[in-house]
Amino acid sequence: MKNMQEMLFEETVSSKSVFEGRLLHVFEDTVRMPDGALKTREYIHHRGAACVLPLTEDNEVYLVHQFRYPFHAVLTELPAGKVDAGETHLEAAKRELKEETGLLADEWIDLGGLYTSVAYSDEYIGMFLARGLHQDEQTPDEGEFLTVEKRPLAEVVEMVMNDQIRDPKSQLAVLKAARLLGV
């Protein structure tokens, strides 16, 4: 008997690059379906990202507020950013924490990860909990403007549940950390 992967697998027959930008690479592939039919799949390749929940000894979370152009709005999120070439998700999380908040951490706990948009993108975001925080110099990327604030973890959980934090990587990292810590 075939396993689920074998029964549902779509074999790539051909792949064509449609657009290549600084952040995204769009492909149009032809695939053979499990029944033998040929179909087209469009998807976006993204090299991945990392997200970090910086938690103080007093169970306060550092949040960032940043304008997100696709929504024409300032969103509340956890510090995060793309993985640079040759970088691991953890290395990216450490770099982004320092760039966006000026914080360094002594302890890093892997919270797992998520696929952001399974129907049309291969982006994977690794999520981490950072503790043992100490202040260093904030070094945002050129053209990156954001503000930073601290809020109690329990309040941040309520912000997620009340739809005040709509960013999925931040939502999931907050809820996983809260569950892990019994909040």
Q: What this model shows, in words?
A:
With about 180 residues, the protein is of the alpha+beta class. About 20% of the residues lie in helices and about 45% in strands. It folds into two domains: about 5-45, no CATH class; about 50-180, Nucleoside Triphosphate Pyrophosphohydrolase. A four-stranded mixed sheet has the order 7-4-9-8, with helices on both faces. Strands 1-2-3 form a three-stranded antiparallel sheet, with no helix packed on it. Strands 6-5-10 form a three-stranded antiparallel sheet. A hairpin with a 4-residue loop joins strand 5 (about 60-70) and strand 6 (about 75). Helix 3 (about 155-160) crosses helix 4 (about 170-180).
Strand ordering within the main sheet: 7-4-9-8
Number of strands: 10
Under the CATH scheme, the architecture of the largest domain is Alpha-Beta Complex
**How does the overall form come out from the CA principal axes?**
globular
| Percentage of residues in helical conformation | 10-25%
End-to-end gap:
44 Å
The CATH topology of the largest domain turns out to be Nucleoside Triphosphate Pyrophosphohydrolase
Q: Strand content of the residues, in percent?
A: 35-45%
Order of helices and strands: HEEEEEEEHEEEHH
CATH class of the largest domain: Alpha Beta
Helix count from the secondary structure assignment: 4
Low-confidence stretches: none
Question: What composes the largest sheet?
Answer: 4 strands, mixed
CATH homologous superfamily classification of the largest domain: Nucleoside Triphosphate Pyrophosphohydrolase
Tally of discrete structural domains: 2
